[in-house]
Amino acid sequence: MKHIAILGLGVVGKGTADLLEKNRALIEARIGEAVNIKYILDLRDFPGTPYETRVVHDFSIIENDPEIELVAETMGGAHPAYDFSMACLKAGKSVVTSNKEVVATFGEELLATARANGVSYAFEASVGGGIPIIRPLVNDFISNEIVEISGILNGTTNYILTQMKDYGKTYADALSEAQAKGYAEKDPTADVDGIDTCRKICILTALATGALPNAKEVGTIGIRGVDSADVKLLDKHAYAVKLLGRMQMQGGKPCLLVAPFVCGKASPLAHVDDVFNGITVCGQTLGQTMFYGRGAGADPTASAVANDILSILKDGKDSFAPAFHAAANDEVLPSAQFSCRRYVRTDADKAAVEAVLGSVTDLGGAYITDKSFTEAEFDAAAAKLGNMSALRVL
Questions:
Q1: Residue 293 contacts by C-beta under 8 Å, 6 or more apart in sequence?
Q2: Which of 144, 164, 184, 291 counts the highest number of beta carbons within 10 A?
Q3: Catalytic residue selected from 2, 38, 93, 200
């Protein structure tokens, strides 16, 4: 029998525990042994639940129990999640997590500690909820240089933008509805300001390139400024606005940006709606591959956590062994160098717009440039056009 512990019995922790209990017989048949949740660390007691007798309040009980060979950290936040994860790894226990903040901030250190102690630190659930993306990047692109990643990585913002597109709602009304349905927190800052998406594209970049960008240095623009008039006009012409985390290789170095992008109907990301996530990965030889599925919620995220748990218990403590380091200043290009086409809506006529931005596609009161601009180039050009609404184009 394999003994594990879960840190935190919130949405993801309970979802993971429920899944392991529900599929107990299936799991035992597939990995050859039963999996027992011996402890659950939480501040609460959960009287009358199936987990009542397993709840402990003292982390040291888990840390010092030699029977515990794996711990699932589902607490969220940086501390004490990082501290508990590090202690478990040093005690020779593998750690599985859904915590993108910890991975994006301390991933290098935690992976190095896992290797030094002959255990695993796995984090499939930290990006894309239940979508398998972490392990494919580590294992299935091993012969390809990854040249670009673009992802809808936050279900809350995708829901809001879908409501704006399909039902003509304002940003404020769509956000209120998302909060009422439990898709958005009372304080939605991490979602709507792009912070969550930024952490996730940094993790994917680290796996693709070996260098973990500093999330605080990545250009990050959320969806608060997305105008429903632009969403409506673009939808009329079969375009959709999506909050994307993007990485493009330029001269052998990654350049990252998080922002609302206009996606044409030819892009599969344009058709990813509601709370779903979608990620495209472009390999130098393979070309573009699409990953799609539920990016958040108890069941999808619990599925990813449970898959990591069972893979490690079945295949060995070193079954998941990615390696990356914190990027040096010269390893990642500044976001100001990110290059893409632009959408602009302005009172200026087409001739005036083309005089500044070059040839454009006319959408009737708005335009999409044929030319790509870096952030710095576009800012300089846009100043000549005066007041306008602008978005980046995938």
A1: 128, 129, 130, 131, 276, 277, 300
A2: 164
A3: 200
